[in-house]
Amino acid sequence: MDYRPLGRSGLRVPVLSFGAGTFGGRGDLFGAWGTTDVAEARTLVDMCLEAGVTAFDTADVYSDGASEEVLGAALEGRRDEVLISTKAGLPMGDGPNDAGTSRSRLISSVESALRRLRTDRIDLFQLHAHDASTPVDEVLSTLDGLVRSGKVRYVGVSNHSGWQLMRALAVAERHGWPRYVAHQVYYSLVGRDYEWDLMPLGAAEGVGALVWSPLAWGRLTGRIRRGQPIPPGSRLHQTARFGPPVDDGLLYDVVDELDAISAETGRSVPQVALNWLLTRPTVASVIVGARDAAQLKENLGAVGWRLDDEHIARLDAASARTAPYPHFPYRRQEGFARLDPPLAG
Known about the structure:
The chain is of the alpha/beta class. The protein has one domain: NADP-dependent oxidoreductase domain (TIM Barrel, Alpha-Beta Barrel), CATH 3.20.20.100. The chain is built from 14 helices and ten strands. The strands form two sheets. Strands 3-4-5-6-7-8-9-10 form an eight-stranded parallel barrel, surrounded by four helices. It has a two-stranded antiparallel ribbon with strand order 1-2. Helix 6 links the parallel strand 7 and strand 8. It starts with a strand and ends in a 6-residue tail after the last helix.
């Protein structure tokens, strides 16, 4: 397993992390993802640690806290061997203070997460979404206090726009508060919007990408094929409406190329899709999940090798789409590109 710095920090993370969204299995969405209990979770944790996957990601909203509870129990006795990241900010109830990133909510969220995870510190604490109603100074000063207390080691965000993230970085720097070192983002071969603004921002400001849904909400598992219905056992039947939208034409162009490269390399379709992400700028770690040991074993096979340049170029071409304004001139016109060339893969 390779390890990379997490943004502009001294923390090194494995290039694959384990996402515990399948742990717990409560509710319509997370129940469809998986229903992993503590015994099953321990088996998956064992496999991860044996492979060098030492980072585990969860969130308070995953199965209404059950994911954190199962992960905490599965890691008991091995806390010092791992990194734990969790997230807060999305609604956990119907009350007026059950959502957002106010000082009150952040402190109570961290305390609740520590209890559910059976630990005394969170290695990476992330804001799950941007809260427009809470002043950024309140958010960052609260995170500063949590870091100073030792309950949180590093801070990051998820699902933020470029201006939201940049504003927070500027305020943190002005006051000497902890800067965000990670941005947990959606990024896949059929979802490359991250590249337009957030990737250059991450490269310039030292914010590493932690990639969620790298297989496009289950569409790049090798089971979805052109001209064929979604397989009966796919979770897409229950969860497609919750995930990022995907253009079918783009999806099948990418799947056709993945199939071809899979045959040429002897690697599975998901392994090829995951390995492509590991070649991209600013990506610190790709978060993979698994319902069972067989699925985890396949995902772990995405590391220890690298796609060659020709295969990367073919995947780039198959997944490319017209850049939105103001980005398209820099992709189409030499004069613009000379001023601001795209980041190299």
